[in-house]
Amino acid sequence: MQSSAIGIRKMGSAERSKKKVQLWKKAVVHFALCFVMGFFTGFAPTEATPQPAKNASFVAETPVQIPASSAESEREKFLEKREEEEEDGTEAKWIPRRLVVIITPVSNKDEYQGVFLRRLANTIRLVPPPLMWIVVEGQKDSNEASEILRKTGIMYRHLVSKENFTDPQAELDHQRNVALRHIEQHRLSGIVHFASLSNIYDLAFFEELREIEVFGAWPIALVSGNKNKVKIEGPVCDSSQVIGWHLKKMSNETEQVTPPPIHISSFAFNSSILWDPERWGRPSSVPQTSQNSVKFVKQVALEDETKLKGIPAEDCSKIMLWQLKFPTEKQLTTAVDSNHR
């Protein structure tokens, strides 16, 4: 009996162990199948279908009014203004600014030219564009002027003259002619003004320049540093019409000069007179024009004063340009010697 009971127990334990092995086999096979299915499913393209968020409400919300931006409001104002102008029969026209061409000669004999060039550049850079600054200097070893001009942020052209002069005034006149030939060759269309390094400007002066059609003139104050004297040179005007020229001192003395004096910095002209003189009633070929363009322009400006426009328009009574005459080293030495006597 005992032996039969022991045999039955052994058979039961063997069956239980077989069942456990079969369960493990099933589990391994099931796991392998799931792994293979998941592996190949990962490479298959799928499309994500959006599902509503949990507890999401499907009730339409009240639309929120978004305020118009400032740009849109400005656009609406512009359109309204344009409609009003169309109803009135008027339409605003955009008029571009004229190009101002400033010519500055630089003498190599001036030891303070770098200081004055920087000072003038600080003024010109405040003028609204378009503006071109043509700087002409004699040939020299130093590149100080080039370095100054590159840092100004102004549209400029730097020209170098290879001629040698003993007379400083003759050198400056030659450099101005070099600049005018450059303007004529490249047909730079604008209003030309000669600006010396010692000039001091009211910034409104450059806006007045842009109003010139053919020729323009204005009064200039000449200030001498060593003589304590101020002279006023320029046109006599009736409104904006030039009717004469005078030289007025601070002592209220008036000197009439024939031919009328015209300072190099007290007039401006339309550059097209250089390459299209027929447009302004001049012959197409004028002798010695290319050699001395400054003299030619002065002559044309003074031939017919009706073409001259006085600026500012209020009888040319406002000084907008000053020129400081700094004493030379020789003049300072002479003054010191005279004071010691």
Can you characterise this structure?
- The model is unreliable at 52-64 and 249-254 (pLDDT under 50).
- Helix 3 (113-124) runs parallel beside helix 4 (144-150).
- Helices cover 39% and strands 20% of the residues.
- The strands form two sheets. It has a seven-stranded mixed β-sheet, sandwiched between helices.
- The protein is elongated, with a radius of gyration of 44 Å.
- The protein is an alpha/beta fold and 341 residues long.
- The longest helix is centred in the N-terminal third of the chain and has 42 residues, at 2-43.
What structural keywords apply?
single chain; 341 residues; alpha/beta; seven-stranded mixed beta sheet; 9 helices
Write the layout of secondary structure elements.
Layout: H1 2-43, H2 70-88, E1 100-106, H3 113-124, E2 131-138, H4 144-150, E3 156-161, H5 168-186, E4 191-194, E5 199-201, H6 204-209, E6 215-217, E7 220-224, E8 229-238, E9 241-249, E10 254-255, E11 267-270, H7 272-275, H8 293-303, E12 308-310, E13 321-325, H9 329-340
Parallel strand pairs: 1-2, 1-4, 2-3, 6-12, 7-13
Antiparallel strand pairs: 4-11, 5-13, 6-11, 7-8, 8-9, 9-10
Helix pairs in contact: 3-4
How far the N terminus sits from the C terminus, by CA atoms, comes to: 161 Å
Query: What is Rg?
Result: 44 Å
Total beta strand runs: 13
Helix proportion of residues, in percent?
25-40%
Overall mean pLDDT: 78
As residue ranges, the low-confidence spans are: 52-64, 249-254
Q: What structural class do you assign from the helix and strand content?
A: alpha/beta
Task: Tell me the series of helices and strands, N- to C-terminal.
Answer: HHEHEHEHEEHEEEEEEHHEEH
Classify the beta-strand content into a percent band.
15-25%
Largest sheet: 7 strands, mixed
Looking across the biggest beta sheet, what order are the strands in? 3-2-1-4-11-6-12
Categorize the overall geometry: elongated
